[in-house]
Amino acid sequence: MAWLAIDRTSPINEADNGPALSDAVRQRIRSFFPRYETKRAALLPALHVVQDALGHVSFQAMKEIAELLELPPSQVIDTLSFYTHYWDHPKGRKVIVVCRSLSCQVMGSEPLLAAVKEHLAIDEHGTTPDGAYSLLTEECLAACDHAPCLLINERLHKCVKPDQVSKLLKDPKNAEIPWPRSDLFDSPPEKGPSSAADSAELPKTSDVQEMREA
Questions:
Q1: What is the pLDDT, as a whole number, of residue 180?
Q2: Selection from 168, 169, 147 nearest residue 158 by Cα
Q3: Coil vs helix vs strand at 151
Q4: Which residues pair with 104 in a beta bridge?
Q5: What tens digit of pLDDT does each residue of 3-56 get?
Q6: Which CATH architecture has domain 94-169?
Q7: Sign of the CA dihedral 138, 141, 145, 150?
Q8: Does domain 17-82 fall into CATH 1.10.287?
Q9: What is the distance, to the nearest Å, from the Cα of residue 88 to the centroid of all Cα atoms in its chain?
Q10: To 5 degrees, how large is the angle CA 21–CA 56–CA 97?
């Protein structure tokens, strides 16, 4: 098995393009600070916010996130590179994730992945020239009873056969989900003066003992 190595010897300078984070994005990240006892705890939400705003998290954006959270830039890039959800380069408007778990392999995920690659003419972690699709695989999508399966953005497609790939990828609504997106990474609601509950401080979430007792 080959591991992807990060070149830490060649400097990467994107600062010539100006700041990556807008004032609105910075303020949205700051809005998470009251939820946690440390700014560091807001790193994952910050990465989500930036990727939603920019489409990916550039190295300049990582540096600015580090400054905002008062962290070494190395901690930001190490966290980002640990999760396959985050991208450090531009991705397609729709991201296809093919499951490669044992259940899906038994049910035909390899021919399914091959069909997606052939239809889009890209390999894993590649993006089509028109920017419409990017492709990657994940170890498990937690839908073993619907194998083989794949995600298009946040929509799960169940029991997909290779001969269904062409029709599926031509469907303009293949990434739509029938319910609202989670507001987990949205800014907390502003405190209002109408009630004590509205003016109460947001609860902390980093006390391990409190979570155990709950």
A1: 77
A2: 147
A3: strand
A4: none
A5: 455 454 444 455 556 789 999 999 999 999 999 999 999 999 999 999 989 989
A6: 3-Layer(aba) Sandwich (3.40)
A7: negative
A8: no
A9: 11
A10: 155
